Amino acid sequence: MLLIFSVSFAQSEYVAVDNRVYEFLERMETLKIIREYNSFEIPKTRREIADYLETVIQSGNLLDENDKKILEDLKVEFEYELFGLFKNSSSLTGHNYDFLSQNQKYLYFYNDPGNMNLFINLLAEGQLLFKNDMILKSSHSAFLGDIGGEIRGTLLDKFGFYIYGIDGKLYGNKDAALSRRDLQYNYKFTETPDEVFFDDTRGYITADFNLIKFKFGRDRMNVGYGMNKILLGNSSPLFDYLFLKIHYKFFSYSFFHGQLLGQETHINDTITGGVNIVAQKYVAYHRIGFDISSNVNFGFGETIIYGDRPIDLSYLNPFSFYKSVEHSNRDRDNAMIFVDFNNKSVKGLKFYTTFLIDDITFGKLGTGWWGNQTILDAGFNSELLYDLLPLGITFQYTKIDPYVYTHRLIRNNYTNFGYNISSFSSPNSEVFLTGINYRFTNRIELSALFNFKIHGANPLNPDGTVKENVGGDITLGHRIQDSEQVKFLDGYLEYSRYFTFKIIYEPVNEYFITLDVDYSNESLQTLHNKNFDTIFTLSVKI
Length: 542
Description:
Blueprint: H1 2-8, H2 21-30, E1 41-42, H3 46-58, H4 65-77, H5 79-83, E2 89-91, E3 104-106, E4 108-112, E5 116-133, E6 138-155, E7 159-172, H6 174-177, H7 187-190, E8 197-208, E9 212-218, E10 222-223, E11 240-248, E12 251-267, E13 275-291, E14 296-307, H8 313-316, H9 322-328, E15 334-343, E16 349-359, E17 373-382, E18 391-400, E19 415-416, E20 419-420, E21 429-439, E22 444-457, E23 492-508, E24 511-523, E25 528-541
Helix pairs in contact: 1-3
């Protein structure tokens, strides 16, 4: 009966990438409780999430006590998708609404099975931020408050929509507020030094025909295994994209085409006060994946960056080889290819690896030629202590060769408004990540993460200009005058250490209290940074 309900009451909206259900599902994958799940691309639709949860429900006796309770919480959150019911849901505009209940809360919801459903929520969040510069011995604090809402729904069980928007205001020190990553590239907040307001919006439409899915709009998307994503992470501004996914049993095919922001220039004008010019820039991606068995899957794909011209139909075509298309387009763009592998044959262990080629000439392998640019990314998730402790362990290693993500034409580097669209900031780097996650209860979770990076930076002259280009700056590709040979981690060695401690407490369903403590120690070429940042967050969904 659960299968019938999950099909009959399908929802085609997507579950945001920061929803904790993904952490739960990845743990279930590592434990071999669900076998068809693949975390290489998220987000996934509510319908897909419900299908995975259905499998977990059928194997509920294999879960520890905390995960059994987490599963009960998820059965409330995805109650309609799983069972077609609203037994544990309440509406502020209806009756029996209790702010302190464990029900799924809505400002308003409407359901006409098979035709339309609609869900509306109010969102509110407050954050206290403390920044301590341990070098300058200075401290700053700030309070951020934002309020907004979200509307989502599905029509005819096939077509979905989502709208999200918030407005916020800063009280206090702006430098402390910029400890929050998304505010660093928020246009309204950063354009004017005295600006204290910020805003954010997301929205999309979807079509879900089970085997084939379409999506168009603005939403966060992650591509890559592990916590550090080598293809698409959370480090750059949101962008709009068109997405296609085909999935049939052992075979999957994904494609998206998105619009990025290129280099910005300002033209002075005494009449209008000047105008900002932002270059046109686009990214396209596709991947084909195969499930070799219930425990092993692999995929290979390509990305392409191009700009300074309208949308190129040759890259809007999902079914073509970008590298060959780039050649036929007169070699004006930046293509990369990759292959990924995921293995969960051992219960409690998940191994993954991705190998990316930005550019390569096989005849010059081993010569130190600058044009051989690759990334090796590998790691594992461990739940081997699952029967003894609710403790998960993760490790990830990433080696990024010189000049990866760069391009001789600045419009073609792997950035969105100057921010790397992957999780990394610099080529010519080696990154080690270790993390633990401990579930005290279904409502209290602690995580600790240590990131250690070694970066070969381009040596600088006293005036700040580049003395030698060793491929360590994403904004500076190889130039004619630069050396034809380069060594990994050549240049000025910079060391960065980041430690993050996070505890999440959900005392009542949809009310979150979060404490983030971040310590960074950076020994850079031009300065030494040592910061201690604390963010205390209270978020409420009504």
